[in-house]
Amino acid sequence: MTAEHSAAFDALIVGAGFGGIGAAIQLKRLKIENFVILDREDDLGGTWHVNHYPGLAVDVPTTTYSYFFEPNPNWSRLFSTGAEIKQYAGDVADKYDVRRHIRYNTVVESARWDEDAKLWRVTLAGGETLSTRYLITATGFLSQPKVPDIAGIDDFAGKVIHTTDWDDNYRADGKRVAIIGTGATAVQLIPVLAKSAAELTVYQRTAIWVVPKIDIRFSERAKRLFARVPLAQRAIRAVTDTIYEAMISTAVIRHRTFRRLNIAAADLAKMHRFASIRDKELRDRLTPDYDFGCKRPTFSNGYYRAFTKPNVHLQSEGIDHVQADGIVNSDGTKTEIDTLVLATGFDLWEANFPAIEVIGRQGRNLGKWWRDTRFQAYQGVSMPYFPNFLSLASPYAFLGLNFFNTMEYQMRLMDRLFTEVKRRGATTFEVTEEANARYLDRMTELLGDSLWTIGNCATSRSYYYNPSGEPSLLRPTSTKEAVREASDFPFSDYQIS
Ligand code: NAP
């Protein structure tokens, strides 16, 4: 039997989070309606569907943490809760009629380019195969939970909860709880658990930078104003965008010139620690030994104060092994616990780049190629030998702290590229090796002046760095530059045929 030579879909998107929803909206703007979105979960929203641990809130102001084209007048506060952000994802999907394209509970395993038919064959768990002309993976950067490889962890007889699989019925009241990890998730969760747990032991391997969260509640009057005069909300966005952008594109990316700004941020965190904790020894143990910004800093008013409660204990000696009823610490002491919370984050480089197996032209395996050469992606989306494929969660794609800025430039790139393909009556596009190499060289050169290259980051254990030690996760340009390049890149960077 010969394989079908016409694709069932014009486009197939993997992932129904904000990336997938944005890509779907862009396809609709391009009048491409014959597409499907596949997601392994049972609802849309991506990370905001999966994560629902207590205390979950965004740590970028929501005026900035939203699509450029879809401001939301209903945010209850500047730093909105996880539930509100999930609601926003649903509202946007409804407004743009995206929901009917989504197939839930569908796990994508692999995609293979069929050179003869000039289409992608996408294999699902269970064996079903779908064909599509364009493949877009929007699988997010932080989507594969990491379970730590700690001796004896499977022997623990009490309750184990990973923060990405929170049990909403769980109550910590009166329980002895241990939490492993002090990343952004733990920083939000610890103050909540500290309120009810009988004992809370926090296992810190690497201290995190924490600055105060300057939050405000939007009154009903303000929300009505935002709805009636969207420009008012845009003005607030301009301020929040500028502050975040300035931090990233000066203090971090142009660190060689603007390192003073970075030091000022570290000083703010230091003052915050000093104002929250009187005990100097405790303060010292919570003090990072790497530069501010080497890994994602966090925002919290309650994190440091939680450690001053009598029921909260910081354990920074390390874990030797886990037993059925507790944790044996590296110093030989044992902490007996009822619940073990794993706030251990995500496996970004091994499990997520790429999140599915992708085999391009001449059998090129994307994951293997990235590892055999270097992690790379032209404009954070395209790789040579992978025609008609956009990988939205790629090396050098993510613009600093705000995912929606990333989405904005990626949507503009889709707009320009797909419009040109259609104008030429072409069937395939593929980035040239020359354009890809040029982009990689430029990213490498820009990173040379960044905090991640010249800062003191060796002990940070930051997921910004790939296993070879290169900081190849973030795109070291401003949002403005990324949007401009996505809107006017030379068509000769792609082979369109
Ligand atoms: P994370 O930042 O990767 O933190 C994981 C924590 O677990 C780290 O403290 C890590 O220690 C620790 N850990 C991992 N394996 C361990 C082991 N074997 N032994 C001891 N400790 C171990 O993950 P996350 O906190 O889930 O946050 C991930 C990202 O999600 C954030 O950076 C942020 O971008 C995003 N996030 C955003 C929000 C928001 O409000 N927008 C909220 C939460 C998360 P080491 O540092 O020593 O590796």
TrEMBL record:
Pfam families: Pyr_redox_3
PANTHER family: FAD_NAD(P)-BINDING DOMAIN-CONTAINING PROTEIN-RELATED, L-ORNITHINE N(5)-MONOOXYGENASE-RELATED
Entry protein name: NAD(P)/FAD-dependent oxidoreductase
